[in-house]
Amino acid sequence: MNQTSPTARSAQQSVQRPVRALPGRGRAARSPLPVLVTVLAILGGSAIILPLVGMGTRVSWGQLPQLLGTPSAQAALWLSIRTCLIATLVCVVLGIPLALLLSRSWPGVRFARVLAILPMTMPPVVAGIALLATFGRRGVFGAYLEAWDIPIAFTTTAVVLAQVFVAMPYLVVTLEAALRSRDTLAETTARTLGAGPWRVLTQVTLPLAAPALARGTALALGRSLGEFGATIAFAGSREGVTRTMPLAIYLEKESDTATALALAVVLIGLSFIIVGATTVDWSGLVGALLTARQERDGQEVVPTSELSSNEESNGDVPSSARIASAKAPQEGIGRGQDLQVAFELPQRDVVVDLEVEAGRTTALIGPNGSGKSTVCSVVAGLLDAENGRVVLGGRVLDDPGRFVRAGRRQVALLSQEPGVFTHMSVLGNVVFALRCQGVSRAEATRRARAELAAVGAEHLASRPGGALSGGQAARVALARALATGPRLLVLDEPMAALDVTARQEMRRLVARRCAEEGLTLLLVTHDVLDLTALAEDVVVLDRGRVVEQGPTAKVLSAPRSDFVAHLTGTAVLTGVIDGDAEAPGLRLPSGQVIHGRPQGDATGGQVGEQGHRKGHDEVLHPGAPGIALVPPDAVALYRQAPHGSPRNVLTGRVTGLERSGALVSVRLELEEGQRLSAAVTAGAVAELGITEGREVCCVIKAVQVRILARRG
């Protein structure tokens, strides 16, 4: 037997042991550039840096204070600073509205964008000539201004005008691009909270666009500071009046090179500071300062005993006990009202007519694109109910002669995205909603804290809105919506992106708050657990039409639509009606007949009287299109056809197996391409040798099959 010495084993282990990468190198995350690209990048950087280095070698650094202290240098320096600050202020005041206008869609906007950017591309001297032809003594407007003794050309005002003309496009193009590509969710959310156009603009749109506004302002400031061609053509070069630093540098370079270089150093230094300011993450810096100040004030301190284990780990889900112990504001208990919605939107192919009783929860379900979000938008006032009517508690919100805008309907909307304002704190988000309703700041702060406490989020009050997890953001959005005192709460799948635990907590929270305040709730969901936990009634939409509605238990236990059948795991077989109400059947395309239970019979595994459909089933017409609803537990699988005379026997091919709790869900495809599913035990799968691709015999209990006329 070969034996390995300890020394050899140690050497072998050292070879096989993986070598640790040096910390911070991140080799796995690297994506190196091709060598040619790197070389070209170095050459490009050199083309920018080398001229600056070369100029630096010619500057008399020791004499810089004396050179900059001359009267001509001082006059040029302060004139440049004064005029470029004024010009930048004018650019901001005029450029922001122009950028906002150009970011919208309207006839001719593309041409307008070209005109707004044109001064960036034309030679500065041409810009100066254009200004002179317009505001000069013999210009289009200049002659009238001269008559009123308001000279423009060859004055300091001309310097400012020249700087505005060439610099404002930099601000406009930067801000307009950011506004045009922005996500408008925050603005839509603000509208549903009751914010008017001015509040939306000043407190939501511009703060969120602040980084682009800062970059554009800095670029405009830098361009104003370096303006030369338009200034000398329109304003001339009068010392102390129109001779800015670029003009002074140009004139001094022939007679006093040292002073010209000194002024150039100052100009480059100012430009570096201005451009460098655009690279700073100002929003992150402000957020950090805000958080630090609030932590210093003690707003973030929460006793450990108040936190559940989930909160201590990730802060995402509050304990149920803590939420239950928090008392919600008591105003408006039982304030829910009836909702009637009827409208037609041809462009979306949605025609809806439904009612929601006061204080009840109605779920709106259906396949994607069926019109659920359209209904929510119409109810909330984000879409016009064309040729229709929206009434809440007898108050007309929308009809051909009246339209109440979003935020003034006493309707709160929560969509899939929470829409928490990232530039505000959590407390600021809720205060914003209350301020939109005309509440004073002090009262809004008090009520906002109460609303956050009611959803178990008071410990998040000082946290920035952009630093929340999904569950936290959902709770904050709910508190903000309820703070507006709605009569109707519309939930458009706000729990879709949450994990299982967060969903459970949100369901409990929504159910408790709606019960406490007696709210009417319209819920859009694809989750059957949301239906069973929250909804008392269900409305099913399909292709923009209401195809089924009724109490939740009745709809789920005896579905009449394909969507609800699939939602509950029921297979839907299509064919033509064969038989009558006493002995209904469905003839499949293969010619085989599936027999079902008699109409009105609530036996066969249904939920007692809640599944009873007597007097509600439609008349079956032989030969008409129909469907057979087959629940998974009605299907038994065999290797071969069993003995006896079972009524419903089909042959199916196994297309997939999936674990479903303690059972295994077996997906099957029939000869004509229709699909079934069966729920069997893991032991049955092993005993029958069920694998993908194998053919099995499917025996379907007729007493559990429902035969219905097919709609649509």
From TrEMBL:
Residue span(s) of domain ABC transmembrane type-1: 77-276
Transmembrane region(s): 33-55, 75-102, 114-135, 150-173, 260-280
Membrane topology: Multi-pass membrane protein
Localization terms from the record: Cell membrane; Membrane
Residue intervals of the Mop domain: 643-709
Family: Belongs to the binding-protein-dependent transport system permease family.
Protein name per Swiss-Prot or TrEMBL: Molybdate ABC transporter permease subunit
Upper classification of the organism: Bacteria, Bacillati, Actinomycetota, Actinomycetes, Actinomycetales
Gene: modB
